[in-house]
Amino acid sequence: MNITIKQLKVFLSIVNHGNMTAAADVINMTKGALSQSLAELEIQLGEPIFDRKNSRLYLNQAGRTLIPLADEILNRMKFIEDEFSLHQSTPKITIGCTKSIGSFFLPNLLQQFETQHHWLPEVIIENVHSIQELLTRFELDIALLESSAIDSSLQHEFWQKDEMVIVASIHHPLAQLESVSYEQLNQERWILREANSASRKFFDHQLAIHFHQPFEYLILNSFDAILLSIFNQLGVTFISKACLDNPFYKDHLVQLNIEDQYFRNFNIVHAKEKYLSPPIQQFIQFIQSHKLM
């Protein structure tokens, strides 16, 4: 068996981009050369790693088995090249996170990480459903996710707790009260994230169960849009308490006092078979030692 690095790169590119045309463009090959390289890999393996139907490729079980092995080999090769290069290149890893973490926690973390290690990872900020798909396809090295949203196929480690609070404009009538009841909140217009978001799931499963009547809400997929809507007194929201540390909002928004507290866990997540290269381990160790509460 004589499998080459090029063949493994071709394989992962097809997996990551979904079709041969896009994969060929990304790795600067012709579609014909890419197809030939894939065919040679399957000959070496002795079996197909994609099923073919109507000129389309569908990853099969052999292909799914190959993904973490190919990912590990390519990452180890990259580390060897960097380690013994006369001009060491900047480490390249890709991390993902949900919009809550990306909006309220990640910028501070990245600033500290760059100061300490002099390089930065690539970052993808998406809803939890998209992040998990990228993890399972090995397009992300690790991710920071809320515990309630982690798929059982992924490995996770606790990072820190995050308090969720009800936030309103400082001019909202409820902002003047020492304590707010669930009955009062039941009458409010809620401004929330979309259904696939971890924040919305936490609202539905933790806070909304206290409401016994239908209530109006506005659905937005951007925290800036939500917080500006709160600033403009369009309603109230359920959001990470960290938003009140934001210099653009802290003087204009206020936490409403209720009888209960709500906490969720943040976790460091990766595919169970993911090879954790030294740069990935360096970033994980940094995250583990930096709790921002």
UniProtKB/TrEMBL annotation:
Pfam families: HTH_1, LysR_substrate
Superkingdom of source: Bacteria
Keywords per UniProt: DNA-binding, Transcription, Transcription regulation
Keyword tRNA processing annotated: no
Alphabetized InterPro entries for the sequence: LysR_HTH_N (IPR000847), LysR_subst-bd (IPR005119), WH-like_DNA-bd_sf (IPR036388), WH_DNA-bd_sf (IPR036390)
The HTH lysR-type domain, residue ranges: 3-60
PANTHER family: HTH-TYPE TRANSCRIPTIONAL REGULATOR, LYSR FAMILY TRANSCRIPTIONAL REGULATOR
Family note: Belongs to the LysR transcriptional regulatory family.
Identification of the protein by name: LysR substrate-binding domain-containing protein
Lineage, opening ranks: Bacteria, Pseudomonadati, Pseudomonadota, Gammaproteobacteria, Cardiobacteriales
